[in-house]
Amino acid sequence: MPAASISPEEPPTGLEHVDVVIVGAGISGIGAAYYLQNRAPGKTYTILEARGATGGTWDLFRYPGIRSDSDLHTFGYEFKPWRDEESIAGADKILAYLRETAAENDIDRHVRFHHRVVGAAWSSADARWVVDVERTDTGERTQLSASWIFTATGYYRYDEGFTPHFEGRDRFGGPIVHPQHWPEDLDYAGKRVVVIGSGATAVTLVPALAKTAAHVTMLQRTPTYIMPVPSKDPIANRLRKILPPDRAYALTRRKNIAQQAAIWKFAQRFPNAARKIIRSVNAKQLPAGYPVDEHFNPPYGPWDQRLCAVPDGDLFRVLRKGTASVVTDRIETFTENGVRLVSGRELEADIIVTATGLNLLPFGGTDVTVDGVPVNLPETVAFRGMMLSGVPNLAFAIGYTNSSWTLKVGLLCEYFCRLLNHMDAHRYDSCVPVVPDPDMPTRPFLDFDAGYVKRSLDQLPRQGAAAPWLMSMSYQDDVKLLRNGPVTDPALRFTSVDRAATAAEMAR
């Protein structure tokens, strides 16, 4: 693909230079590119994508039934209405939406495929990043210069999912598949399938596999909160018939943002009441006499982990039909014919699916240095949920864990563009957050009890107890801070480089 245009200012390194390197061409990277083009239109940029296609998660994952677990009126971009009648949509529709967004806004031509960022070195003297890139198709190493890096890679590892150690794994005679690496030719029709896990991936897979499998068993160690939601939003579809698309979308989006916030706040304030409501809904969806408390009563509070949504109750439907079942137990060992549990029960299987979660890989695993000193992420603190203390001119996109991911990312992109424009207006070259007190109390980067987060906390940055060092999970608070609040902050240090002096020094 053609590269982005080159900045007229030649960097001291002599390398090709762009104002912003965006890492990743998924939902966050495409969104960042749109905001840059429209809110900081003078900036040049390129998107470096390690894979050979746009779409990120929605192109990578190919397991049956893959879909969003948030409504597309909030998971979609604020600037591009979601027009499909399905509010909870499959990956094919989401991918088409993302690629349509990129094509409509001429973002495609800025993407460089098979470019993996492996390192980034900041020079304060030059106020520049030198970015080390590996071609994933040829192995070739290249470099380019950038004023800013915007990492839009999310926080999980794309090339490897998490699978715990299972005793006797080699004994099992059938395929063992992780959903992140689903084989295109896997034939599960008429087969007995055991899906290990109870998160969003498992509850998506079970009803999809049950359409043709002989039987599907969801084997869980611990239950998850699961709620049926309508796949179509009747209010959204009605509004679209009587209002212009942009207006209908804006109203639906506002409604759903308020609804998400209200549900989360209720669950946080009244966890016992929320638990009873969820249990009641589950019981009505399940067959009479079903052991609800054994399989659908988690030991933690609602929203301590992400609540799983099942469109139109499809998981409960296959449980009622008997084409799927849930078993809550621990695995003792794999056997030649399936899985033997601690209770002594054996689940026979032709195929085992390990829907056991993700591995986190913050910032795509890029090695970052500042003036030759390696950045140790656990020693940094997040600033406004998008920069790191002590690291100049680097922004990242991490969405909400208690709401739609893209709601947060959109606000971060808005603030990022405001920050760039502020720096241009005052002729600043670099911007770095500085923690005011080295003894400032900190806490884990993500206040989320999911296993994939807890396994990786020692690899992640930290957060503080209050703004601007807080990883806010409130859209309303972030609107005030990121969209409407001041660009500057006492914790942000801006500097300018004397380029004439630098050029003279290099000429000696």
From TrEMBL:
Cofactor: FAD
Presence of keyword Transport: no
SUPFAM superfamilies associated with the record: FAD/NAD(P)-binding domain
Keywords from the named record: FAD, Flavoprotein, Monooxygenase, Oxidoreductase
Transmembrane segments annotated in the record for this chain: none
Superkingdom of the source species: Bacteria
InterPro entries assigned: FAD-binding_MO (IPR051820), FAD/NAD-bd_sf (IPR036188), Flavin_mOase-like (IPR020946)
PANTHER family in UniProt: MONOOXYGENASE, PUTATIVE (AFU_ORTHOLOGUE AFUA_8G02570)-RELATED
Family statement drawn from the similarity comment of this UniProt entry: Belongs to the FAD-binding monooxygenase family.
Protein name as annotated: NAD(P)/FAD-dependent oxidoreductase
